[in-house]
Write a structure and sequence with these properties.
This protein is an alpha+beta fold. It has 10 helices and 12 strands. It is 54% helix and 15% strand.
């Protein structure tokens, strides 16, 4: 409002200055007409004093005359001063027409047919009007000069007016503008509050808090905010559905893996029960079969307990005889395929690795090797250990597995292939035990899978 008042005042001053200049020129026209009408008989009588008196009285009507900023003069037909309102600056007998005035040349008396208007560089105005008799003879000229200072507006008066206007504007329009602005901004503030609550409060409540207004722009903003909250609500629902589907997929993946790991020892235990049923009359066979069943059940128990992070089941260290137990569990599968299983045990140091994960690895790899060897194939399993590492290698006589095929099988079994999780489980156990599970590329005639872990206690969470 203050800036608007200043701008309005400046424009008003400019307009008033232009109007003042126009009014002054209009007043000069009337004064010249009056002088011409009264000076004719005086020129005819050659009465200089009366002409001077007329000019002195008429000049008082011109703005700026009292400050010596305007003057009138009657010139003779040849352009010399006959009489003037200011004899000091326009002395009698001074040649005006045809001579320079304020460094600007004027026309001679013979060249002037009608009014001549001269605008001086400093803003002053010079008017020259011919005085003619009734028969058209030139009796003389009226010379009028108004300096630029006479056209200047009254800045003091304008400043007082502007100050009064500014005070009134600030006093009256200030509170009114504040009230109107606050009323207009109230819906905007409510929209801001709603936007700040997005993500923290319920979307249904927020949509009801969006202000309703008749203003088209605010209405568009409110509709956009409501649309945004609707999109966020739909996205949240989609994320919840995706999370639920991901959880279901993880549960399915875990269930398939656990079912696979439980089915492997169960198949061997079923074979042992058949052996017990057929050959249970011998005490040694009964004891060996029962011991095998006990170890198989312990392995199943350990596998299931791995699903419970809070459960801690003490597991014994691996023993060389565990490989023979695993071979016994898969013996039935080997007999069905008429496959040959050879084992080699080369343990140079005490085994300090848990038995459950290693038995699980050996069982998975033996079953996969028998499947890869095919009918009448052969499988060789080697358990090696020294002070620093425990290694289990298994070879089969089936088609040689390439490294790319091995990697693609691991990637498929990691979650997209529902037919088995054996190799993937071996890879996960090697990772948890800070070991490695890989294809031995140095063997070119047969497929050789290598599982190697440090010969030390299992990390926290695997015991």
């Amino acid at each position: 409002m203050l800036l608007a008042a200043v701008l309005v005042t400046a424009i008003t001053a400019r307009v008033q200055a232009q109007n003042a200049r126009r009014d002054t020129l209009s007043l000069l026209d009337r004064a010249v007409v009056l002088v011409i009408a009264q000076v004719r008989p005086m020129l005819a009588a050659d009465d200089t004093w009366r002409v001077f008196s007329l000019l002195r009285d008429t000049a008082q009507l011109i703005p700026g005359a009292d400050a010596d900023q305007a003057r009138l003069a009657i010139l003779s037909p040849d352009g010399a001063v006959f009489a003037a309102s200011d004899p000091v600056k326009l002395e009698t007998g001074r040649q005006v027409l045809g001579a320079p005035w304020r460094e600007q040349p004027l026309l001679s008396s013979l060249e002037i047919e009608q009014r001549e208007l001269h605008l001086i560089l400093d803003g002053s105005v010079v008017l020259i009007d011919p005085i003619r008799s009734e028969d058209g003879q030139t009796l003389g000229f009226v010379f009028t000069e108004v300096e630029s200072a006479a056209f200047a507006p009254d800045w003091a008066s304008l400043a007082r007016t502007a100050l009064i206007g500014i005070v009134l504007a600030v006093t009256v329009l200030g509170p009114l503008g504040w009230w109107v602005g606050k009323r207009m901004a109230r819906p905007v503030g409510r929209l801001v509050e709603v936007i700040e609550r997005i993500g923290r409060d319920d979307t249904g409540v927020l949509q009801g808090d969006v202000p309703k207004t008749t203003d088209p722009e605010l209405s568009r903003i409110g509709d956009a905010v409501a649309q945004l909250m609707g999109e966020l609500e739909r996205r949240k629902a989609a994320e919840e559905r995706a999370l639920s589907a991901e959880r279901l997929a993880a549960v399915g993946k875990m269930t398939a893996a656990v079912a696979h790991e439980i089915n492997n020892p169960l198949a061997g235990m079923l074979t042992a029960t058949q052996t017990l049923r057929l050959h249970g009359g011998t005490e040694s066979i009964r004891l060996r079969t029962l011991d095998l069943l006990d170890r198989g059940l312990q392995q199943i128990r350990t596998t299931v307990a791995a699903l419970l992070p809070q459960a801690r089941i003490e597991d014994r260290p691996l023993e060389p005889g565990d490989l023979e137990d695993i071979v016994t569990l898969v013996r039935g599968t080997a007999e069905k395929r008429r496959a040959e299983i050879r084992i080699q045990v080369d343990v140079e140091s005490a085994l300090r690795v848990p038995s459950a994960p290693l038995r699980q690895v050996m069982l998975n790899l033996l079953l996969n090797a028998l499947k890869a060897a095919g009918e009448q194939g052969s499988v060789c399993a080697r358990l090696q250990a020294d002070e620093s590492r425990v290694r289990f290698c298994i070879n089969n006589s089936g088609p040689v597995l390439s490294e790319d095929k091995f990697k693609s099988t691991l990637a498929a079994e990691s979650g997209k292939d529902p037919r088995g999780f054996g190799l993937w489980v071996c890879q996960e156990l090697a990772s948890h035990l800070r070991g490695r599970f890989e294809l031995d590329t140095s063997e070119t005639s047969q497929t050789c899978l290598l599982f190697e872990v440090p010969n030390r206690e299992a990390p926290e969470g695997l015991t």
